Amino acid sequence: MTKRPTILVTRRLPEAVEARLRRDFEARLNPDDRDLGEEDILAGARGADGILTSAIDRMPASLIRRLPDSVKIIATFSVGFDHIDLEAARARGITVTNTPDVLTDATADLTILLLLAASRRAAEGERLVRERRWIGWRPTQLLGLGLQGKNLGIVGMGRIGLAVARRARAFGLSVHYHNRRRLPPEKEEGAVYHETLETLLPLCPFVTLHCPLTPETRHMINRATIELMPPEAVLVNTARGGLVDDEALIEALRSGRLFAAGLDVFEGEPNLHPGYLELDNVFLLPHLGSATRDARNAMGFRCLYNLDCFFAGRPVPDALT
Ligand code: DGY
Fold first, then answer.
1. 309 lines ligand 1 (CB under 6 A)
2. Is 156 domain-assigned?
3. Measured between alpha carbons, how far is 115 from 130 in angstroms, rounded to an integer?
4. 168 and 194 share a domain?
5. Nearest CA to ligand 1 atom 2
6. Domain shared by 209 and 307, yes or no
7. How far from the centroid of its chain's Cα atoms is residue 201's Cα?
8. Active site members
9. At what angle do helices 159-170 and 104-119 cross, to 10 degrees?
10. 142 and 212 belong to one structural domain
11. Looking at the domain assignment, is residue 69 inside a domain?
12. Nearest-CA residue for atom 6 of ligand 1
């Protein structure tokens, strides 16, 4: 029998995924879901053939350069890969894979949840009821914003952006988008393309971010771009916290320049900017975009499929390097 590849797994994974890992690999699991630092990863990867990591376990060049030569593949349990230095992996001949497609619907659903929750003041309403401060229905109580007939600006029209666009139309929103490239008409389905944020933002009272975090996109939502939005606009972010300059967003929410925000991701998470916690007009979730049982299982199995293909010498479907 050929030796089963050894895989260091940096996070506790769904049960079915770990069962399959134990069956087909020499799996070095993390049953307590401990945060592994660089030194833990280096120690755990000694003699390993691959690493199964996640969106919150950073793999910078300094770590990748020191990985043992035995490590040939890093499979990340995420669609985003900004936490891995791809150049450094390429330089070491390490294949990196991610998990596209399988979390698209879950993340698009959560985007709509945030859009509605922020626009309709759901957090304030929930607190009112839960804290027994609700005095009963009033014609002017907690009035929010309706979506019908307004424009939604989607920044980043990849798989998730497109899935959000489909859902948004059902709420009567017209879709505008900014993307590096214009999509073909059959994918646009009537969405209006903007080559720049400068033309998109002034037209959109609702804006949602779906682009990757790169040096170019970091803090793309900042004082200047917020000023381009219509007064009392709503911002949603289920992509990466680093896309937003927190100070600028908090200032705009505090002053009422923006009506509300719905945020699932934060720069430096889980340590989000404390300014958000003082605001009523921000709806906060703890990075739950892909957090359905179906999506998380599918993400795990997608990682395993990539590992299977790699070790069988077959083309690796989600190879990024
Ligand atoms: C991803 O996949 O990149 C998310 O942030 C975690 O689901």
1. no
2. yes
3. 22
4. yes
5. 78
6. no
7. 21
8. 240, 269, 287
9. 50
10. yes
11. yes
12. 78
Q: What is the pLDDT of residues 69-110, one digit of tens each?
A: 999 999 999 999 999 999 999 999 999 999 999 999 999 999
Say how far apart CA 177 and CA 290 lie, in whole Å: 22
CATH at 269: 3.40.50.720
Closest ligand 1 atom to the C-alpha of 290?
7
pLDDT in tens, 271-319: 999 999 999 999 999 999 999 999 999 999 999 999 999 999 999 999 9
CA 174 to chain centre: 23
Residues 136 and 86 in one domain: no
Give pLDDT, residue 271: 97
Full residue range of the structural domain in which residue 200 is found: 104-284
Residues 135 and 262 in one domain: yes
Q: How far apart are CA 234 and CA 261, in angstroms?
A: 5
Same domain, 18 and 160: no
Distance 240 CA to ligand 1 centre (A): 9
Name which residue sits closest to atom 3 of ligand 1, judged by CA.
80
* pTM for the whole structure: 0.97
Q: Is 290 in the pocket of ligand 1 (CB under 6 A)?
A: yes
Do residues 52 and 144 share a domain?
no
Q: How far apart are CA 255 and CA 137, in angstroms?
A: 27
Atom of ligand 1 nearest to the CA of 98: 2
Residues 30 and 96 in one domain: yes
Binding site membership of 295 for ligand 1 (Cβ less than 6 Å): no
Q: How many angstroms separate the CA atoms of 27 and 48, rounded?
A: 9
